[in-house]
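forwarding from the other thread:

> can someone predict this with CU-O-CU linkage?

sure thing
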Amino acid sequence: TGYPGLASAAADVNDKHLSCDPSGKLPCPPLSTAPIVDFKPERSVKRVRQPVHRLSRSYQEKYKLAVARMKALPASHPLSFTAQAAIHQAYCDGYYRYDTAAGKNQTFDVHFSWIFAPWHRIYIYFYERALRELVGDDTFALPYWSWDAPEGMVIPPLFRDKSANNSLYDPYRNQANLDKLVDLDYLSNARPVPIDFDGPKDETYIEAVNCNLCTVYDQQIRNGKGARNFLGGVPNFTDTDNTDRASSGTLEQMAHTAMHVWAGRAPNSTEDNSTCAFEHDGSYNCRNDMGFLGSAGRDPLFYSHHSNVDRLWHIWSTALRGGNGFNDTAWLDSSFVFFDGVRIPRRVRIRFRDVLDTRNLGYTYAAVSEKLPFLSCNL
Ligand code: C2O
């Protein structure tokens, strides 16, 4: 299967030819004519992704510098920060369309199905590659926001520092939650009063931390048994409801989505999801960044958030023995084309089967502690 990619990240998921906004009105990722090559596994593991809250001073500076350089690239460059954010938006706000016998112009979405985990792994892998190139350090690895461990249960200070040279800062966050203890169950059972992360470690605090740990425990273990439950359902490309949405796995649906909304959306926001997520005139008038899929990639925090989501998938596959995922070739052979190379542009076609083991991508994860914190969930 295969066809030339039109925009940055074309896909041939089950032979569907996706094209970004045939009407030409939406802010699609820049077009590219760079050659397309097939992904080749990396030869060795050179990178260890570390928790943001443990980064050394110099690592923090390097992360800021890398993102600052990415932000300095012209928007027309496929690896500019603007283009990176646009890729995510294009893939979730219905900019990519396909035709089937059942209907024309069906909306393609990388969320709400078994596409979620591998697509995001690939997306942040190419983001990380670009950052590596921008700082000329092949060992640079995308740090993860470890909201699953008590020490990481706050937006990392590195992302909150307002100094002018902090490329990781984003003003479009929920100001009420900036220095609060994360609420991983924010969607179904939001804590009525946010708790200060640096506040007294009293009973309320300890109880809230335990709730967070239990949410992760539920998504990873209790409700995440088997690939279908953990990674999501099979997308339906043939029905006529104008979408490929199936069902989200616990990896996507639980802490991941809660953190998007908790970090990004203002409480009692009058802006409703639909008006923010669909910007068909191309305007960016709704900024809750992390809070809506369409704008999430505009916050640098997104990529460290997804590094942690990716890590929790990795932990599920390895330490928790969840396995490699699905055996269906429709999943294993699904492929996408991503931009690569800041200086010498090319595009890389990569299949889900290529990314099931992070070693093929040359990275692994540093543990936050010897024992996975969520195993201590005390139900
Ligand atoms: Cu594409 Cu966290 O979403």
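The beta strands are 19-20, 36-38, 47-49, 96-100, 103-107, 335-340, 346-351, 363-365. thats all i got for now
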